[in-house]
Amino acid sequence: MNSQAHTAITPATLTHLQRLEAESIHIMREVVANAENPVMLYSVGKDSACMLHLARKAFHPSSPPFPLLHVDTTWKFRAMYHLRDRAATAAGMDLIVHHNPEAMAQGINPFDHGSLHTDMWKTEGLKQALTKYNFDVAFGGARRDEEKSRAKERIFSFRSANHRWDPKNQRPELWKLFNTRKARDESIRVFPLSNWTELDIWQYIHLENIEIVPLYFSEPRPVVERDGLLIMVDDDRFPLRDGEVPQMRSVRFRTLGCYPLTGAVESNARTLPEVIQEMLLTTTSERQGRAIDKDQAASMEKKKQEGYF
Amino acid sequence: MTAQDPVYVTDALIAQDIDAYLVKHQHKTMLRFITCGSVDDGKSTLIGRLLYDSKMIFEDQLASLEYDSKVSGTQGGEIDFALLVDGLAAEREQGITIDVAYRFFATDKRKFIVADTPGHEQYTRNMVTGASTADLAVILIDARQGVLTQTRRHSYLVNLLGIRNVVLAVNKMDLVDYSAERFYEIVSDYSHFAKQIGMDSFLPIPISGLKGDNIVSKSPEMPWYQGPTLLGHLEDAPISDMAMQDRPFRMAVQWVNRPHLDFRGFSGQISAGTVHPGDPVRVLPSGKTTTVKSIVTFDGDLTQAVAGQSVTLTFADEIDCSRGDVITRADAPCEVADQFEATLVWMSESDMLPGRPYLLKIGTQTVSATITEPKFEVNVNTMEHLASKTLGLNAIGVVNISTDRPVPFEAYGDNPDLGGFILIDRMTNATIAAGMLHFALRRSQNIHWQVTDVNRDAHAAQKNQRAKVVWFTGLSGSGKSTIANIVERKLHAMGKHTFLLDGDNVRHGLNRDLGFTDADRVENIRRVGEVARLMSDAGLIVLTAFISPFRSERRMVRDMMASGEFIEVYVDTPLEVAEQRDVKGLYRKARLGQLKNFTGIDSPYEAPEQAELVVNTAALSAEDAADRVIEAILRSQA
């Protein structure tokens, strides 16, 4: 918390955000004390921004002693690339950007290849990068409140040599005692934000003044309407259909990913408090903007078992 | 739908003045609680109801919930709240939850994290896991059923984990006509039982999770109940971290922060008390003292930090301090010991093996530890103490634990951060048990190592040799004793001072009280290891010939010896060959079922992965094998 927050409340009552912050810091330090070659997965979204901020707090005055890894698809919003490079520099951390060379060679894109786009760029790309750099622990920004199957995932989640997750064979996590031991070829995904909710993240970003991608704030942007989603035309690779003309509309994004797969919402929220206000008054859940979840009820769980983060 | 007005949604401030709302909500506290009950007690329905009433459910989720309720709900088309907290696909198919799940909701006053644990045979493990981080427990009872065996079990575990704030939620009051008489009857039964297990107090609340009675607002059906609603109580109940602030300062060091030569900080999460710059502190186990120079954070130095916060401390003096050490108030340090009494909750499919070295993680330190046979096992249904030689999955027992290093600790009841521990299997790396330290055994504090003037090096030097332990391992009939015998004869002829410890011979005397169960095999090897160590201290070249089938125990003995002193010789003979030889006729007996736990037949042999020497007796004669061993010994003497 900033010093203002400290003086504003009596020390005997840690707020929920202070407790969450202390827990996340504790988790990150346990990893660094035990791992051989940790990395932080950085997707440039608000959760990543929050996680990076917590890492800077955990190791201050040192820089976080691990690199950031962005598993890129080349289809992110341009504004995300801008913030990504700046944030890594500000934290004094190395940034590794990985592109799946096969996806690159085959020109895999969200327009022509459907779910193959996510499979190859993200799921396969992540596995490739972890193997290539020999990372044994990877921090991820997933939260338990995002989706039902996540509610049961551990903070320290073990992956077999081929990066699979076995929900039936998880280690019990007691107290603050994380068992970080693993076999040589296994790896661990660690989720320091497990106990944060979407509202906690927003409040923390507000309180700590953390920079996030401007796409979270409403602004007139060129969009087309497709399959019930408002898709922003972020660059000239976007293949417009016959008669389709991008409309300028006041929109913002509640979640960020590949721009052709991420639905915008119409909104007038231009400031962080307004975004939070809208979120609190809203009636649909965060994941609705993501095309990936629509397949079937247990889709996230299937993807996770296959290695999708 | 029988939903009442969701009280916590329509905070007018959100729409009117979001900034004021945010300021208000930044000062919320957080309570973690666990709900205990089995499938039929309505646990999932209650949690679903809390999420629903605190408006943690969005319209799209509600739409799919309404749909799911019609398809697979158990409430005849009405909203089935239980479906909200259902999770993994496999569970959905089986219709049960199989693990601990964490749910989140918030009111104006607090954020809540609920640990939801299922009610089937894995219950003890899951519930102990969920309860370990809880400030409060909600124990659910079906008003029609009253206090059942499982209620006792839940309550015992809640009490064991040190949760002092217990709510007895008497659920399904709608199904007993909201009867006050029934409610008080259950409360009276439960009081009697609570006293038996040493539970100081609990708060009974009559509720209906399905209908929403006394969850968020007072039930009009039960005017006779004057106490708080469930959510009302959850909002006001005390939080564990706060109670820890009144105790003396404790912080386990997680990580030493050294960005450059001029800064050396000690990072950790404060587990008790408060700390200020200038406070005298003591570092354990070394006992060295210094004062706190500064409390460093990203947001600037602090003038005070309290239990629950993660900080970095710097010291006025350069004293040794590293991960695993505990920083304490100088005049009120915690205890340091290497032998303890503790309660263990066994969480692994493989039984506990007394004497086997396990890893023990406590605070930020991981040490090697061995466990004695249980003093007793607790029957979690009846609270009876039972005699037992081991602990199986979900068993709870009281044991003595001995660690290979002194460990700073506090009794679990005083400080869970410094009294709670996990045990880890060295081979599989699985978390196999959770434990709670009671107290240090006095004997470890009063017996000190006697330093003698003629030390081990002097003993060996006088004999013009280096002490060694040559450990032969292999199947029965592999040729261990034969080879070891030749080796000793030849070394003796060379003027070396040796001694051969043979498996069969030792079992006639020192270990004659031991049989051939896994647990006894472990103890057998432990004793032989200790004897071998004493003999190597005397400067001897010790040869041992034991099947010693488990990697863990061979590793234990290796760890007892000085580095380079232990030579593991794997006498590698295929089972068929050993069985064909059958010098003592034991394989035949084992095959006939007359000999139980025989290695290679009905008890496993774990071959060494990194033996110093492997001799294959199918390819080598015993003489040749012995020569190879002697070469290795002489090489190590150079």
TrEMBL record, chain A:
Residues 37-263 form the Phosphoadenosine phosphosulphate reductase domain. Pfam families: PAPS_reduct (PF01507). SUPFAM superfamilies: Adenine nucleotide alpha hydrolases-like. Keywords: ATP-binding, Nucleotide-binding, Nucleotidyltransferase, Transferase. Coiled coil: none annotated. Signal peptide: none annotated. It catalyses: sulfate + ATP + H(+) = adenosine 5'-phosphosulfate + diphosphate. Gene3D superfamilies: HUPs. Transmembrane segments: none annotated. It is an enzyme of class 2 (transferase). Pathway: Sulfur metabolism; hydrogen sulfide biosynthesis; sulfite from sulfate: step 1/3. Heterodimer composed of CysD, the smaller subunit, and CysN. Belongs to the PAPS reductase family. CysD subfamily. This is Sulfate adenylyltransferase subunit 2.
TrEMBL record, chain B:
ATP binds at residues 474-481. The active site is at residue 548. Its EC number is 2.7.7.4, 2.7.1.25. Coiled coil: none annotated. Pathway: Sulfur metabolism; hydrogen sulfide biosynthesis; sulfite from sulfate: step 1/3; Sulfur metabolism; hydrogen sulfide biosynthesis; sulfite from sulfate: step 2/3. It catalyses: sulfate + ATP + H(+) = adenosine 5'-phosphosulfate + diphosphate; adenosine 5'-phosphosulfate + ATP = 3'-phosphoadenylyl sulfate + ADP + H(+). Residues 28-242 form the Tr-type G domain. Signal peptide: none annotated. InterPro entries: APS, APS_kinase_dom, CysN_GTP-bd, CysN_II, CysN_NoDQ_III, EFTu-like_2, G_TR_CS, GTP-eEF1A_C. GO terms for biological process: hydrogen sulfide biosynthetic process; sulfate assimilation. It comes from the Bacteria. It is an enzyme of class 2 (transferase). GO terms for molecular function: adenylylsulfate kinase activity; ATP binding; GTP binding; GTPase activity; sulfate adenylyltransferase (ATP) activity. Keywords: ATP-binding, GTP-binding, Kinase, Multifunctional enzyme, Nodulation, Nucleotide-binding, Nucleotidyltransferase, Phosphoprotein, Transferase. Heterodimer composed of CysD, the smaller subunit, and CysN. Sulfate-activating enzymes, NodP and NodQ, may be physically associated. APS kinase catalyzes the synthesis of activated sulfate. Proposed to provide activated sulfate for transfer to Nod factor. ATP sulfurylase may be the GTPase, regulating ATP sulfurylase activity. In the C-terminal section; belongs to the APS kinase family. This is Multifunctional fusion protein.
